[in-house]
């Protein structure tokens, strides 16, 4: 049976009792065996760090896959980081484990792609301005110019890159803007298919949002088709983008119940509400290092 110490939905936004300048996040993955948690705790104790939270999950107690996320507070963390990483390499890497250490004060740089629908875009920008989404947003890119003024009101650069007959030309411009400037790309209802070449070249994770009718109601007018079939649930799925369309590892999903009484317009409105909330949570969790990819699945702490 799977063993887990984590059984709740992660919060939106991470609150730490200490200074964010002293906060580190350590992700450890690998083949499960006794002593991993003790090793991590011992190393942090040796450095005088205080563990703020620790979540771990094992697919099987007998040699399954192990995942751990530890948040800790350590004075002068930035200065002591090389020494701490050397110790993790010595004790964890040599034990066959993969690990990654990030500093909470180093916000991830997130580029947002959007088309004509603005509900997911505005949700991310609004939460960012309120300080709920702790990221940097260096740019918004769109294949339509509709939201240029809206985005600029948030003090964020807007880039209009039309997609015409040659999508490769648009993607070359995307890559020129993105290369070396972002840690994550978010498709906030960006209505263009991303090519395999782009995914390779951009070399950062890409998160997408779509309504959960897929694949049952593909193509145009999904809510009209859903209404005709008498659906009872409206949902949305946020996932990482891979070369297989809409089949990447799922980060977050949610649903709302509906009945025969709702109109097509009601369904579309409920769907937009779910989409924006699901995408916002997925982006926040990724940027707080809560999401660990495992094959075509994820562990979300």
Give descriptors for this structure.
301 residues, alpha/beta, Alpha-Beta Plaits, Rossmann fold, 7-stranded mixed beta sheet, 5-stranded antiparallel beta sheet, 8 helices, 28% strand, globular
Description of the molecule:
- It is a single chain.
- The chain has 301 residues and is an alpha/beta fold.
- The protein has two domains: 101 residues, ACT domain (Alpha-Beta Plaits, 2-Layer Sandwich); 192 residues, Formyl transferase, N-terminal domain (Rossmann fold).
- The chain is 32% helix and 28% strand.
- The strands form three sheets. The chain has a seven-stranded mixed beta sheet with strand order 8-7-6-9-10-11-12.
- The N terminus is likely disordered.
Give the SSE layout.
Layout: E1 3-4, E2 23-31, H1 36-46, E3 50-58, E4 65-73, H2 77-91, E5 98-103, E6 109-114, H3 119-130, E7 136-142, H4 148-153, E8 158-160, H5 167-178, E9 184-187, H6 196-202, E10 206-211, H7 222-229, E11 233-240, E12 250-257, H8 264-287, E13 291-294, E14 297-300
Helix pairs in contact: 1-2, 3-8, 7-8
Looking at the structure, what is the overall shape? globular
H-E order: EEHEEHEEHEHEHEHEHEEHEE
Beta content: 25-35%
Number of helical elements:
8
**Chain-averaged pLDDT:** 92
Instruction: State the major sheet.
Output: 7 strands, mixed
* The named CATH superfamily of the largest domain: Formyl transferase, N-terminal domain
Work out the oligomeric state of the chains in this entry. single chain
Overall strand count: 14
What radius of gyration results from the CA coordinates?
21 Å
Architecture of the largest domain, according to CATH? Answer: 3-Layer(aba) Sandwich
């Amino acid at each position: 049976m799977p063993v887990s110490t984590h059984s709740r939905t992660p919060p939106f936004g991470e609150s730490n009792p200490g200074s964010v300048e002293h906060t580190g996040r350590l992700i450890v993955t690998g083949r499960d065996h006794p002593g991993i948690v003790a090793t991590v705790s011992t190393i942090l104790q040796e450095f005088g760090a205080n563990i703020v939270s620790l979540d771990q999950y094992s697919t099987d107690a007998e040699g399954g896959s192990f995942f751990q996320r530890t948040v800790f507070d350590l004075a002068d963390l930035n200065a002591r980081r090389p020494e701490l990483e050397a110790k993790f390499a010595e004790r964890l890497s040599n034990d066959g484990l993969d690990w990654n250490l990030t500093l909470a004060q180093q916000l991830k740089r997130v580029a947002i792609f959007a088309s004509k629908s603005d509900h997911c875009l505005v949700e991310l920008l609004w939460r960012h301005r309120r300080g709920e989404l702790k990221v940097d947003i260096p740019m918004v890119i769109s294949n339509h110019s509709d939201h240029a003024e809206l985005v600029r009101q948030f003090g964020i650069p807007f880039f209009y890159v039309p997609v015409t007959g040659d999508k490769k030309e648009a993607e070359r411009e995307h890559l020129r803007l993105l290369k070396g400037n972002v840690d994550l790309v978010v498709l906030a209802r960006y209505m263009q298919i991303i090519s395999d070449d782009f995914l390779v070249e951009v070399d950062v994770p890409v998160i997408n949002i779509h309504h959960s009718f897929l694949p049952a109601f593909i193509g145009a007018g999904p809510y009209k088709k859903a209404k005709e079939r008498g659906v009872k649930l409206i949902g949305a799925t946020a996932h990482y983008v891979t070369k297989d369309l809409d089949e990447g590892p799922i980060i977050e999903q949610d649903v709302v119940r509906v009945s025969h009484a709702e109109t097509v317009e009601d369904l579309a409105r409920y769907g937009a509400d779910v989409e924006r909330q699901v995408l916002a949570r997925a982006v926040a969790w990724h940027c707080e290092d809560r999401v660990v990819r495992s094959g075509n699945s994820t562990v979300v702490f």
